[in-house]
Amino acid sequence: MKVILLQDIKALGKKGELCDVSEGYGRNYLLPKKLAKEANAQAMNEYKNAENSKNFKIATAKAQAESYKKVLEGKTFKMTAKAGKGGKLFGSITSKQVADEIKKQYSIAVDKRKVVLERDIKEFGTYSAEVKLYTGISADIEIQVSEA
């Protein structure tokens, strides 16, 4: 018996997946508890539409990430900070500040958790960072820190 899962079920799969289960398990457990619905013609049509929609969203997000990568790849972001004697910064340049700078210069919203710095930026100089735009798609950027 083919069913479409309405919730995640540990032994079977995730919500929205099409699964093949035994007749008794489907009729006596999954369907009465509303954990799944029978895969009839209408449900299969909805399932295919949902799959197509999901694939379209994934393709659109990948294309968007690729275009952002072309824009950001190899760019240098100039940032200023206050420092004490010896070029030591008061505090540090964080990934949030880098993400804000990317948004300010290129209007590309990047989550601060997706900006990976090689090490903490606590002195003046040039540092490299990686911006993860999508699974497997990332852009390498430079961050140049100078005195305010």
Task: Give a quick rundown of the structure.
The protein is an alpha+beta fold. It is 35% helix and 33% strand.
The CATH topology annotation of the largest domain reads as Ribosomal Protein L9, domain 2
Judged by helices, strands and strand pairing, the structural class is alpha+beta
Give the CATH class of the largest domain.
Answer: Alpha Beta
Low-confidence stretches: none
Distance between the termini: 68 Å
Roughly how much helix do the residues carry, as a percent range?
25-40%
Strand order within the widest beta sheet: 4-9-8-6
Domain count: 2
The average pLDDT value, as a whole number, equals 93
Biggest sheet descriptor: 4 strands, mixed
Itemize the secondary structure elements and their pairings.
Elements: E1 2-5, E2 18-20, H1 23-30, E3 36-38, H2 41-72, E4 76-81, E5 88-93, H3 95-106, E6 115-117, E7 121-123, E8 125-134, E9 137-147
Parallel strand pairs: 4-9
Antiparallel strand pairs: 1-2, 1-3, 5-7, 6-8, 8-9
